[in-house]
């Protein structure tokens, strides 16, 4: 593998930071495929995006509280927001996307107002943008743990959530506690997004969560293929994106996202040809 | 021409050994009394159609029976020679809000409903066998590998009906089963329902706005209006009642459709599914 990668991509594989970045993508792709696929089924792509943006407020709260590391503040705020949005969705007659949109606007604005006080805004931006090239071995271990936790959770709840995303009344009639599951899933998505943002950055998290699954949706026929193709597309986008960013000296995260975008277009083409 | 009305007593023998009851059933949400004082008895093998104008609370009634919204009063199922409990409900939703590209097959739907093993770890042989059995019970073509998004309205209804029967419920709830289904799909669906009633002594509660179809398949009819049951009886009695006419603007002249062959409603349910059989 090492030799092959060297011949294909030049010397990029010899840099530890590139290897770490690639391993990070390898680790998060299955995790994101599980969550992303269900999130798209449940029309939650925009929700995940909103949670990601609201991380800004998490950072701001961390700063206000004087926390040395904002990660815990981001996590706490995202989970709180997840609960609020979900409950609001149940109780309110307003369309879901409007609820999410307005929550996001308020959260982002609040974060910006707090952080921009005193002109210190630039200091906090890296927390939000993240950098897939700065990951350490310890970060990778944490990602692996997160992946394992997701896998174990999915072992118990995947089918129930899947059925709920198809039709909640049907799920309810089969004894599935729909409300708790919806809340649990929303909180889980929020927690994963919040935990990954300081490492990978807002753009990469949301793109890797939605793009591979959306591409897989274009070509998969069954739920099993949907998941497996999502993983495969995540890996492919990561590999191509990281190689290209090294080769053309571009920012790693956005290049990776563009690679995912190209894959999506390709699957769209395949789908059109099939039809 | 008149609708193919029938009296339950001479055509479908209702075994009566088990019973689903709604007693003093009501729903109050946010201070609004949506439903009140509803008393309904539903015996095995019997089909009750609940009709009523839009906004009468038909959907609310279904959602409350399903447990989606809280209700007052009681909902109990009394099996043969056993204590009462909450009934096991088979539910056929009005429609699945699926986008056509949704990557999920009919088999995925069954596996998700019947097992815990995540769909991406493969689907066991036993799920396939159970699903095939459910389709055969309906004499419906087995379509396990078709994508849910590609099915016609009628096919999807049959899939949902087959799913509702695995495992066997105490009572089957049908929510506007014919909406968005073409005529051949409707008659096929009702053939399947008739077969079920005949062979499995299943109690069925159907909510419907299609009075003709409801009259031709149901044993009893209940008119829901102003948040409660206004009339209950044979389809003929309820449809000819002035209350029904004023509430629904219904005229007694109805089409004889869909045509359910008389022999599919033969009264052998009492022999084939006596109390002993139901104990298993």
Q: Would you write up a description of this structure?
A:
- The complex is a heterodimer of chains A (275) and B (280).
- Chain A has twelve helices and no strands.
- The two termini of chain A are 37 Å apart.
- With 280 residues, chain B is α/β, with parallel strands linked by helices.
- Chain B has a six-stranded mixed beta sheet, with helices on both faces. A three-stranded antiparallel beta sheet of chain B has the order 2-1-4, with helices on one face.
- The radius of gyration of chain B is 19 Å and the shape is globular.
- Classes of the chains: A mainly alpha (275), B alpha/beta (280).
- At the A-B interface, helix 7, helix 8, helix 10 and helix 11 of A face strand 5, helix 3 and helix 5 of B.
- List segments of chain B where confidence is low: pLDDT < 50 over at least 5 consecutive residues: 1-13, 252-280
Sheet-strand content of chain A, in percent, reads: under 5%
Spatial separation of the terminal alpha carbons of chain B? 44 Å
The biggest beta sheet of chain A is recorded as: none
Query: What's the gyration radius of chain A in Å?
Result: 19 Å
Number of strand segments of chain A: 0
List the strand order in the largest sheet of chain B.
5-6-7-3-8-9
What structural class do the secondary elements of chain A suggest? mainly alpha
What oligomeric state do these chains adopt?
A: heterodimer
Question: What's this model, at a glance?
Answer:
Chain A has 275 residues and is an all-alpha fold. Chain A is 83% helix and 0% strand.
Helices and strands, with pairings:
The complex is a heterodimer of chains A (275) and B (280).
Chain A (H helix, E strand, L loop, with lengths): L1 H8 L6 H26 L3 H21 L5 H21 L4 H21 L8 H5 L7 H30 L1 H6 L4 H23 L1 H18 L3 H25 L4 H23 L1
Helix pairs in contact in A: 2-7, 2-10, 2-11, 3-4, 3-5, 3-9, 3-10, 4-5, 4-9, 7-9, 9-10, 10-11, 10-12, 11-12
Chain B lengths: L7 H4 L7 E11 L2 E12 L3 E5 L6 H9 L5 E7 L10 E4 L13 H9 L10 H13 L15 H12 L6 E5 L7 H18 L2 E5 L3 H7 L2 E6 L2 E6 L1 H6 L1 H7 L20 H4 L2 H4 L2
Helix pairs in contact in B: 4-5, 5-6
